[in-house]
Design goal:
There is one protein chain. The protein has 2 domains: 191 residues, Distorted Sandwich (Beta-galactosidase, Chain A, domain 5); 467 residues, Glycosyltransferase. α3 packs antiparallel against α4 and α3 packs parallel to α14. By secondary structure, the protein is of the alpha+beta class. The chain has 14 helices and 35 strands. An 8-stranded antiparallel beta sheet has the order 6-7-8-9-16-13-12-11. 24% of the residues lie in helices and 26% in strands. The N terminus is likely disordered.
């Protein structure tokens, strides 16, 4: 996925005029128990009780933390959190009781409700204290806050940044550095005192409540900066899909889809060069920006909701497509980038990632695949045609740059000495291993990248033919050579039979670990029927699939760790890609079994699937354990719910040829009705009865087949 190198720390990359880190790294903060409320490019991370108190907590805007702590205390009673609820992606509530305040019996009498909402550059928190008892309540409420303006990479490294001293006036606290300002304003009818002690600013309120009365105060936090974020917010109601409505026999799945749709809407960002073009930021807290592969996979999984997100993602990346050979950023003509940040990231191990970084082997073929699939789902031909020059440049990159040694396969190596060592989606430094656990040496050719490249070359050739552009035969021939080279070099065997190695190493030897990478090959056309059957059975073997999803790395491999970032954990998007591949390859029962494992993980995460979680066997635990530093929400984890829906419904569109296939698999989801889908710009409703009978409703010019 996005970069994650174990045990590395990161230095601040913001202006030297800001406060610098003042302590050694304590390691990447854990976020599994944080409550995140977001509206990209802003979010608040807090404790379940509502306070901003842990190392990761804060109010963030555009990769900078504007408020690092927020604490509420009540004099005369113990404040005990009792409940919290994510009401929507951008709104949460936190309940507490004031134990000992105005009580006559053991029953609590006075409560505090905090309601938090987030908008771009702004968070609002309404405090409501209510006296439910029969005694008069007198209490002092204190709200304390601090700011440090820490850069995201500083927070992620576990380093601390010296806090700034605020100034207090009227009902406002203000923290300032040379290019940014944070204001926190209190609005209430009660008397407000403002005090400052070192870096901490405090509002104090004297509250008197007769029985049945309540007191309210609204806190408004605003981030102001002279430095624009790389990408802007999407308009609050400007989601590029219709309202989705799902009614399924599986309540866990219904809740998973509902939460995912809310999260994806608040992860949307816009391209400042064309504000109407939206894409999904990768995830919060660490990756709320444009990531090539993440944004592409997210848009691809959401195609049944319409092609607008795909179009915005394609165009945003096309505007930044490589034009020159720039070794420092790994830019090459036709290449699709890896990520965009506001500033260069300097890591303590010497890694240096430029603000616009191209160190990825898979984003370019995935861009081609998305353009092709969006065309098949009905992206307007004028919009497809406008992207054909970028398609031709991307196809040329596959042939001229993606295969530098001419062996017919795509491989990568960090040419800078300071970039990412691994440049596929499993991009941690220890992710590509032999079966005995030893690490592979670059240049590395990943198995799934060959599948993406094959599919991209064939799909790109199909687009060139459809739009009367030259060159299709060149890419079909190149795909054929890649397929032959893959069949010759990637297949290995063990006591259970043949399977595909994760990669080839620098010596062109198969890196023979058993991994989830095989799932990305299915349905791409790279394999024949017999090969797909072998892969389907291996994917469902206990070593990979007896967890709450598909493990990245089999338990039979040396170095397996259920909490290893890419060496034993479960990634929802990875599982969903395998489910889609199994369905496309004609293995609906395999797809159903794997999908149901992932759906069963939902309740453990309040239906908000994280970036990844532990690969613990389902027989060993009733709930999957979290990976403590995982993003939640994460765009492609959220989008995986829609990939499961598409796969289990057997939905495949070919709008240019006027067909739509609906071929549902037997599953616990049935009966099911979903509306708000879209094909060729027309709304689509699909209903599947318990016996598998299908009914569809659409005005799209397509023939529905089963």
């Amino acid at each position: 996925m996005t970069q994650q190198i174990p045990q590395q720390t990161q230095s601040p990359t913001h202006s030297p005029d800001l406060a610098a880190p003042v302590s050694e790294s304590g390691g990447q903060p854990y976020v599994h128990d944080a409550t995140l409320v977001l509206s990209a490019p802003s979010f608040v991370a807090s404790r379940p009780g509502g306070d901003l108190a842990a190392p990761v907590d804060g109010f963030y805007h555009g990769d900078r933390r504007f408020l690092r702590s927020l604490h509420i205390a009540v004099d005369g009673g113990r404040l005990t959190p009792t409940n919290s609820a994510l009401q929507s992606a951008d709104r949460a509530t936190f309940d507490a009781v004031l134990r000992g305040t105005a009580q006559q019996t053991a029953d609590p009498a006075v409560t505090l409700l905090r309601e938090r909402t987030v908008a771009p550059g702004l968070f609002t928190e309404t405090l409501s204290v209510t006296n439910h008892g029969s005694l008069h309540a007198r209490l002092t409420v204190a709200v304390s806050a601090e700011s440090d303006f820490a850069a995201m990479d500083t927070v992620k490294s576990g380093a601390t940044t010296a806090p700034c001293e605020p100034r207090g006036e009227d009902s406002r606290l203000t923290w300032s550095v040379h290019d940014a300002q944070m204001t926190l304003t209190a609005r209430t009818a009660a008397r407000t005192d403002v005090s400052v002690l070192g870096p901490r600013g405090t509002f104090t309120f004297e509250v008197s409540l007769a029985p049945g009365e309540h007191w309210t105060c609204t806190l408004e936090g605003r981030a102001i900066t002279d430095t624009p974020t790389p990408f802007g917010p999407a308009a609050h109601h400007d989601r590029p899909w219709a309202d989705l409505r799902l009614d399924s026999a599986d309540g866990d799945f219904t809740r998973l889809v509902s939460q995912a749709e809310q999260d994806l809407a608040r992860l949307l960002l816009s391209d400042p060069e064309a504000p109407g073009d939206l894409f999904a930021g990768a995830g919060a807290p660490w990756y709320l920006t444009l990531f090539g592969r993440d944004s592409l996979w997210t848009a691809r999984m959401l195609l049944p909701l319409g092609t607008e997100l795909a179009a915005g993602t394609l165009r945003t990346l096309a505007r930044r497509q490589g034009r020159d050979v720039v070794p420092a950023t790994e830019e090459q003509p036709g290449k699709i980038l890896h990520e965009v940040r506001a500033e260069t990231q300097e890591l303590d191990d010497g890694t240096r990632l430029p603000a616009q970084y191209y160190g990825t082997i898979d984003a370019t073929p995935l861009w081609i695949c998305l353009l092709h699939d969006a065309w098949r789902w009905g992206m307007p031909t004028t919009e497809v045609a406008a992207l054909l020059p970028h398609l031709e440049a991307a196809l040329n990159w596959l042939v001229e740059y993606g295969d530098p040694d001419g062996d017919g396969l795509l491989e990568y190596i960090d040419s800078t000495g300071t970039g990412l060592a691994n440049q596929g989606w499993k991009d941690s430094g220890d992710s590509v291993r032999f079966r005995d656990g030893s690490l592979a040496t670059a240049p590395i050719a990943l198995c799934e990248v060959q599948a993406y490249a094959y599919e991209a070359a064939v799909a790109g050739a199909r687009l060139l033919d459809a739009f009367d552009r030259p060159g299709a035969d060149r890419y079909r021939a190149w795909a054929g050579r890649l397929q032959a080279a893959f069949r010759r070099t990637f297949w290995v065997s063990d006591e259970h039979g043949p399977y595909v190695a994760i990669a080839l190493d620098a010596d062109k030897q198969p890196v023979d670990a058993v991994t989830s990478g095989m799932g990305h090959l299915l349905g791409t056309g790279l394999l024949d029927t017999e090969e797909e059957a072998a892969i389907a059975d291996r994917l469902l073997s206990p070593a990979l699939a007896d967890a709450f999803g598909l493990r990245t790395y089999a338990t039979s491999n040396g170095g397996y760790n259920p909490l290893g970032y890419h060496i034993g954990s479960v990634w929802p998007h990875d599982t969903a890609i395998a489910v889609q591949g199994l369905a496309r390859a004609g293995f609906p029962d395999h797809a159903r079994r794997l999908a149901e494992n992932l759906i069963a993980a939902g309740p453990a995460f309040d239906s908000r699937l994280p970036e990844l979680f532990a690969g613990t066997a389902r027989s060993a635990s009733a709930r999957p354990a979290p990976y403590p530093a995982s993003c939640r929400p994460q765009a492609w984890a959220a989008a995986s719910s829609f990939a499961l829906l598409q796969a289990l419904l057997g939905l495949q569109a070919n709008a240019p040829e006027g067909t739509l296939t609906v071929r549902p698999a037997e599953s616990r989801l049935l009966p099911l009705t979903v509306s708000g889908l879209s094909v060729a710009g027309h709304e689509l409703t699909v209903s599947v009865a318990a016996d598998g009978t299908v009914r569809t409703r659409t005005s799209a010019p397509v023939e529905v087949t089963g």
